[in-house]
Amino acid sequence: MESIYNNIMSAISKCERLLAVLIDPDKFPVENTSAFFKKVNASIATHIFVGGSIVGDFQTETLVIEIKKYTKLPVVLFPGDVTQITNKADALLFLSLLSGRNPEYLIGKHVESVSKLRGSELEIIPTGYMLIESGKFTAVEKVTGTKPMLRNQIQNIIDTSRAGELLGMKLIYLEAGSGAKFPLTEAIIRGVKNELNIPLIVGGGIRNKEQLKLAYDVGANLVVIGTAFEDDESFFDDLKKIN
Questions:
Q1: Beta-carbon neighbour count of residue 240 at 10 Å?
Q2: In angstroms, what CA-CA distances link 184 with 49, 120, 177?
Q3: Which of 42, 88, 114, 178 has fewest C-beta within 10 Å?
Q4: Considering the entire predicted model, what is its pTM?
């Protein structure tokens, strides 16, 4: 498979809008994979992200193997822990939790993962991950022991994103969190994008086509949707490919 990151960059250069379907192994019934991916493959989805904050051992690898049977879309790990790393996927978002100050999620987990990644063929993409408050206590907060960034402190969010880029991150991922009550604001997305020279991923709280379009219009290069599809698979009907 060609470099996933290079393909993202190429798509952005062509003004293409990218969409990732996020699947949490802890919440997704593996036996539903075939039926679910009939809808995914008929949609405008371009990537599959797999991961969650709390996932049992081997659940991720089992799910990735099953997903690979039913789609040719790139499968990218979005891990909440080192235990979710599997060579069966195509790439790994090597996440640094820039919104928090817990050293375990800034460098500790990364060091721990090296033994699993040594000799791996996974494409590793350094990604600055930032949790923004969304009106709900998230699993990310619980697991990492960190607080989200305040959504009204836009300049701090912008500066943190830019610092991530200067540190060498190849992607910045702004996240409102799983099951967010509301998505990120236009001002946050636009403000961050205006200062970045790398791709911007936006996720959390997007539950309809209008919110998705707005995220793209104000600067998101890749949008991630998870809970909305978990709650209502008919959302895929609004996102079918145009032949």
A1: 11
A2: 19, 35, 10
A3: 114
A4: 0.96
Q: What is the dihedral of CA 17, 223, 76, 37, to 10 degrees?
A: -80
Please report whether residue 163 resides in a domain.
yes
Asked if residue 236 belongs to a domain, the reply is no
Q: What pLDDT, on a 0 to 100 scale, did the predictor assign at position 14?
A: 97
Convert the pLDDT of each residue in 31-66 to its tens digit. 999 999 999 999 999 999 999 998 988 999 999 999
| Structural domain range at position 178 | 4-228
Q: Is residue 50 part of a domain?
A: yes
Look at the chain and report how many structural domains it folds into: 1
Nearest Cα to Cα of residue 174 among 105, 232, 142, 221: 221
| CATH number of 99's domain | 3.20.20.390
| Band of pLDDT at residue 121, cut at 50, 70 and 90 | very high
